[in-house]
Amino acid sequence: MSWIDVSVALSPDLVTWPGDPKVQVSRPISIDRGHDCNVSRLDFGAHTGTHMDAPEHFIAGGATIDQMPIEATVGLARVIEIHDPKSVGASELAQYDLKAGERVLFKTKNSHRDWASAPFDEQFVHIAADGAQALVDAGVQTVGIDYLSVGAYEGDGVQTHQILLAAGLWLIEGLDLSKVQPGLCELVCLPLKVLGGEGAPARAILRPAVAEATSAAAS
Question: Which residue is catalytic, options 47, 51, 57, 126?
């Protein structure tokens, strides 16, 4: 089965979190200007586009992105479609029987539009604090969502991050799940290995889990 790229492209038009640096791409070395090759310069924040948060992002002394175990974001994952139009809450998560060690990716109404090229949406679907606690209580190891943050723009956004990151979860933010169906899938998501970094841009790909992997997960 074909891999689906669930990353958003970095470009100057990419939406960013309010106050974060905008994406800038320049080419100081260029064949067009007589150089032997092309070399681009990239300037953007660590939490731009598809990226990952390490515990250090909100927890002083927490693990940094270069310390992330590879297995946190490589392996079977479950895409769960959220129907609540505002947040991922504990009441909706209760029906999914979350398991310890799972990698869970939330597809919400955020995926119904091309959010990456639209103005910042202050009302994006996020993970509520009680939803975050439910994920921690279940022992989930990795959580992903289809907007720039797992936490709300206002309200309990900081609390959501603190609950998840204090428990050592690894967070994937800024996923494009518009072409992904709910269910088990294979996940590969690797952030840049930034020494001491609280986060880093990442490339993420998914494909539906093959029958053998599905059977193994069920057993």
Answer: 57
